[in-house]
Design a protein that fits this description.
Elements: E1 9-13, H1 18-29, E2 33-38, H2 44-51, E3 55-59, H3 65-78, E4 81-86, H4 99-109, H5 111-120, E5 124-133, H6 146-167, E6 171-178, H7 193-204, H8 215-226, E7 237-240
Parallel strand pairs: 1-2, 1-4, 2-3, 4-5, 5-6, 6-7
Helix pairs in contact: 1-8, 3-5, 4-6
Amino acid sequence: MQTEFQDRLAVITGASSGIGLALCATLLSRGAKVLAMSRTAGELPALKEVYGERLQWCAGDVTCQDDLQQLARRAAVLGPVAWLVPCAGIAQMADSLDMPAFQRQWAVNGAGALNTLAALRGELTSPASVVFVGSFLTGSSFPGLAAYIAGKAALAAQARTLAVEFARYDVRINLVSPGPTATSMWDHLGLSERELDDVADTLAKRLLPGHFLDASAVANVIIFQLSQGARGVYGQDWKVDNGYTLS
């Protein structure tokens, strides 16, 4: 059965694992074509075996302008682009006044996402939908993650104004902000295994189901935000956090 995604192009960065990979898999299962960008192929080859030419991979880093321009050139050949999700992201524990740590994370989470849109804006069709990936922590505090939270908060502020500016082109811009999600990002925080276990236990106590999200749960909300089902939604930040922010 055909869906609104059939044979239309989505561009996803940070696509080799976690939410980005789950998003690629869901879009492909609904008939979309996907141009995936990531620094390494990760788990994408397994999807390629199933979906063949409907999945194209572009090796690249969102902090590199040349790589983003290469992505745009690939999209111009495959496009037009109906959906764009700059999903690349990193999180690192650091002192709250560690400016190099802020710059490293902003380069990917904030500037990387915005520069991805800047590079692809000329390839977007009309209508199109862009979803940035925020964070459930932007209204909270979490010692050691100030740089990560600040970058995501700044991205959310940018997205609200971008939503107004791009509406004239029939392009909707929104955010989806995941809560604690079982992805490999936790392995790169710089914490010991025991420290990770303690953090996971603390977070799980605030989650209404008592457990972390899986990446596909977040991907499904992003898919709806991309779809015409959300055609009246502009500049909103949807938190998918298993109830964390309610307590």
